[in-house]
Amino acid sequence: MHSLTLLGGHDKEGYPEILDVTLNRGDILCIVGPTGAGKSRLLEDIGCLAQGDTPTGRRVLLDHQIPGEGQRFSRGNPIVAQLSQSMHFIMDISVREFILMHGESRCLEPEEPLVERILSCANELTGEAIHGDMPLTQLSGGQSRSLMIADTALLSPSPVVLIDELENAGVDRQRALELLVGEDKILLISTHDPVLALLGDRRLCIQRGAVRQIIQTTPGERRNLAFLSVINKRFLSLRERLREGALLDFDMPAYFAVESETDKEEKEATPRV
Ligand SMILES: Nc1ncnc2c1ncn2[C@@H]1O[C@H](COP(=O)(O)OP(=O)(O)O)[C@@H](O)[C@H]1O
Ligand SMILES: [Mg+2]
Questions:
Q1: How remote is the CA of residue 148 from the centroid of ligand 1, in Å?
Q2: Closest CA to ligand 1's atom 15
Q3: What pLDDT is attached to residue 90?
Q4: In which domain, by residue range, is 234 found?
Q5: What is the number of structural domains in the chain?
Q6: Which residues, other chains included, contact 206 with Cβ-Cβ below 8 Å and sequence gap of 6+?
């Protein structure tokens, strides 16, 4: 499978939705819009490869064709992997056993080096270290999500990954996206977060149940993304300091002051007296 096409249905009042967008492997598409606008619904439409048979009337094509019944209804849908908003593990096994079991259920035989790769990936994403022998049920929200993202990137064969509201919950989201896209997947993320929204190539804006516009991330937005990423990293490192018992009474405006590229260039070009 190389591409996924999303065709419009209708909004909540029944008015037609003008939408015909195709995504290729390696693409990131963000979905933005007010709460209740229909972001999760859009992801669900993709999750079930809708054919005009969901509340939105949308249709999804794979490689410009209607997916076969086998692709739509096969157990453990191989086309789409979904990382849901809330994740709770209820199995009484260790993280390592879980990764091995998960691999087997996908008919892979993950060997120890792959388990280690998934663990080290997950640890890149979360500030709270995960060890292979930890009980699965004791992972925090951020650790669970990091583990599932690493697992999906490295173990899941699904070419399409849906993430509903990946927010700042102890996961290095920028790294997570690099990881997932690096595996040549099509990534759709609903978000309220500017850092994530600008990371995508395009974003769909949803209101009252329908996509109203598709915005291509502009060069100006990309520049601002670089700025926001620095601010975001610094903000995240405050969490670390807090965890370690540090005081946060230092000069915050100075801590967050970020020179723009042009300021820096000007300074470099100006000879010091
Ligand atoms: N085009 C539509 N037609 C009818 N109902 C819709 C449509 N889009 C969304 N809905 C419904 O509106 C409700 C809110 O949508 P949801 O996707 O949960 O919003 P969000 O994730 O943006 O907060 C859900 O019950 C969903 O099924
Ligand atoms: Mg939602």
A1: 26
A2: 38
A3: 76
A4: 228-269
A5: 2
A6: 31, 32, 33, 37, 38, 39, 42, 212
Whether residue 142 is contained in a domain is answered as yes
Residues 34 and 163 in one domain: yes
| Ligand in closest contact with the CA of 57 | 1
One domain, residues 189 and 104: yes
- Kindly report, residue by residue over 174-227, the tens digit of the pLDDT: 778 778 877 788 999 998 888 888 988 899 999 999 999 999 999 999 999 988
Angle, nearest 10°, between helix axes 112-125 and 95-105?
120
Tokens standing for 4? 């996924």
Q: What is the pLDDT of residues 84-126, one digit of tens each?
A: 766 677 778 999 998 888 877 766 666 777 888 889 888 888 8
Question: Is 223 inside any structural domain?
Answer: no
30: closest CA among 169, 181, 170, 199? 199
**Which residues have C-beta atoms less than 6 Å from ligand 1?**
10-12, 33, 35-41, 55-56, 209-210
Instruction: Judge whether 222 lies within some domain.
Output: no
CA distance 10 to 14: 5
